[in-house]
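quick one, two chains, predict together pls
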Amino acid sequence: MASIKLTINGKSIETHSGQTVLEVAQTAGIYIPTLCYHHALPPEGACRMCLVEIERQRSLQPACTFPATDGLVIHTHSPEVEATRKFILEMLISDHPLDCMTCDAAGDCRLQDLAYEYGVKGGRYQDGFKHSYEVNDPNPFIQVDRNKCILCHLCVRACDHVNGVEAISVFYRGFNAHIGFGADGSLQDSPCEFCGSCVAVCPTAALSPKLASGKGRSWQVEKVDTVCSYCGVGCKLTLNVRDDHIIKVESTWDGPANHGWTCVKGRFGFDYVHHPDRLKKPQVRKYLLDGKKKPKSRNGKLWQWVETDWETAINITAEKLRTTRDKFGPDSIGVLTSAKCTNEENYLMNKLARQALGTNNIDHCARL
Amino acid sequence: MTNSIDDIAEQAAAYFVIGSNTTEQHPVIGMRLRQAVKRRNAVLIVADPRRIDLVDYAVLHLQQKPGTDIALLNGLMYLILENGWEDKTYIKQRTEDFEDFKKTVKQYPPRKVSQITGVPVEQLEQAAEIMGKTKPMAVLWAMGITQHISGVYNVMSLANLQLLLGNIGMPGGGVNPLRGQNNVQGACDMGGLPNVYPAYQAVTNETSQSKFETAWGVTLSATVGMTATEMLPGVLDGKTRAIYILGEDPVMSDPDTNHVRTCLEKIDFLILQELFPSETAPYADVLLPGTSFAEKSGTFTNTERRIQKVNQAIQPIGDSKPDWEIISELAKRTLEGRGVSSGAPYAKWDYNSPNEILDEINALAPSYAGITADRLENGETLQWPCPDKDHPGTPILHTQKFTRGLGKFTPIDHIPPAETPDTEYPMVMSTGRVLYHWHGGQMSRRSKGLLEIYPKALIELNEEDASRLGINGDKRVRVSSRRGSIELDAWITDRVPPGMVYANFHFPEASANQLTQAVLDPIAKIPEYKVTAVKVETT
């Protein structure tokens, strides 16, 4: 890679070749607005928001695809550039539902941000043709609202370059162009595996998580980084929490094992945490509270569950473990620890079995 | 895994995926395999009795009969040796016992292997040539390799293959078992095994024993304990009196459900610490509400030995408590009578946070010594072994030498499965999970979307068998083995070859484990889930 020197907005920048103008500008802290650009996907130059003026070029050039070379003189916010961006936004807005007040993406929508930045509300083309797509893809995970699609193709690229199944493509051309799945059918009938990478990169609410719909906006949630609870890949995830409820899961781009990728369970399978079946209080069988012997029958009153406080449940349990150990020996007790629990908890289970009970009878589901 | 996910995704020139349905069970690794094939023309060979989705991206699909992996691998190594494709320098410098191994492999010429495995000779030759000529090659496997009575030998055969090709300790190579559960690696690392203390220090080793006796202040047992697959049957002969289960559901996940239920009925005392009233809960005497990953902090260790921080996002649901608190409370009250010597540095159970437990792990588990709370809080995610605070962690194992010094070749002969099809039970059933569910299903069946998209148990059945049975389209079937019978809908598909069915254990009303048998690998005590003789009938 050769050293190059170029100028952006009068600022001289020394860098190396092999980058785009956008990348050089971003590294130098110079802002260029984008819609169809995503750092994790190959650039496509689809939306033209990142057009810049490059001296000695006949027309404005997309910064996301234009290679940075020695001697370029670039203007990112010249009057012509700004007018063009405003024109593009007016075109996009003219065929976009202006329902930001009820849209889940509000506050986390690049189109909204840019419309705000450029003061575009309506404009010259507001009376032009408008699409009216039905919002009816029946899958349980992803809301598909083509009315909000700006044809940035990020979902197409994510499905190809992240998941790989290529379930999403663009059908038709011109004003009729739209995003479609498989042979332009439903997501469920396409090769889609519902990893949700498309949702993660969608700049609007064209593709959004159904579970999060109406549950909270980006500024209302607390974001907590953690690790997925399903498989051994160890995807780093960001839980979006509102009022002590997880409403959405995002996959973190700096995750060392997953780099922003995850699967259907990681992204959409989190709601078991709040399922009404969750055990909320310790329970013991009635015979234990009554100080009776364990009943032979599992149908009688003595085998019924009784909710207790923690102190009672822990005391009964510890007493039983102690007496079993003392009467039948430590090896009469088995401990199954959990591959779903933390290292710290597994260490404690190992210590409990070996130190407190005195047995090596400890195992977990690694074999199962 | 000897290597990292990034390393094999970016560096491997070839992949041999055997007994791993990667795109469904480790989806992100599956995606990366797809990308390696698509973007940089990496060569993928899949060996699997089923036509799994990953086969779409493979140059070769070796469709071996279930339970014939050793024969297949020996056959491939026969051809590698025959053509002189082995890595002679590596074998000479880094391995031992090559000659004995070679003698055994010589007993597996292609024609014989083809007869045992059902893989055509031509495909064996093609696979051996790719393996012999494309370096580095990463081998990836999962339970398709291990859940056999020959599970340990299957794994050793894969180690033989990678030693022969000089692929262990190399970027883009390695032997890479994909670990199933989010923290199954960590549960093993932390001493959740009957034969080892944390960091694999053997309970039978006197130095280890005295180290932990000094640390914990009690006399410790030097007898290897029982495995999960031995504890439950131990109830019937009075060996096991009480079991304390943390977050596990044997009724769903253990082999031969009817037998599991019989054992659980006879147990004196069962403690279950769980999120949900699982299928095992009806047998419990005490039910303690634990918490999910979202309600507590700590660390998980992933399949590439990487320790990552788990952070509490919400308050525990109801009166549930973080599991580390419950375990500590129980231990404090059971420790009585164990004669704890005063002054032992780690005898106590008064932890105020998971970080304090991690401090103790740092002190006692050498491979975790440098993986401190401070470093993790600062955003580091280290891979063990990480023996001190300045160590950067270890992305690839065995780069200079093996733990035992030289890599050992082991001569291994084919062992047929315990139960083979006969006239009464003429088909072979293999079991596993599907993309949309998880293990016994306690979590995924309680996730609205996952249940909606995959609402009931399905058994994969080949269309030839379906038409022989008179099934036209998806239809209810009864599947029986010597141990039980289930009724469920058949999915007519060419994912399974004729004579084979594939079932999951996500749904209690039709769980494959009602049919599987508790026949174990004699060393690892892992059940042979992947080969069960069954019959399929219309209902």
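The longest helix of chain A spans residues 310-328.
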